[in-house]
Amino acid sequence: MIRCQGPSSSDAMNGVAAKTAPVKSRSTIRLIHLIKMLVVRCAAKMFLINVQPNPTRGTYTLVKSVIIEGIRIDAPFEFNGASIPRILWEEIGSPFDPRFMAPAVVHDYIYGAADHCGMTRKEADKLFLKLLLHNNVGVDLANTMYAGVRIGGLSSWGSVTK
Question: Where do the structural domains in the chain lie, given as residue ranges?
């Protein structure tokens, strides 16, 4: 047990103020921990990819191979960005928002791979969520997008593009 010591009688006589460590509550310690995690997350580099638009098809092509979270995606790989219905673009953002591109290419690749990279659909969707959060997408928006792939992704499980 650590105890804070008050001033000694000699310190009191010499006018030296007591130096005690402030006691922190558990909630204060948790808050400090959360702030440190947020600073680390914001300082983390986003996963960025090199793509070329295909305007007539409404897709993008990965032009440089990448490895993200141990998954290698060889170029060229065509994908449709994050599958956000146009009616929700104003609320959520464009499917081609740079924060969404790397999570979307990984997600589309896993969905279209013959063996799904050894993942279940739920694991692929959870990885999509993890990558969104890594790319500084807010928690609420990332969870909304995760819910979207959980609801809308079943029909695309197994196809190359969603």
Answer: 9-43, 51-156
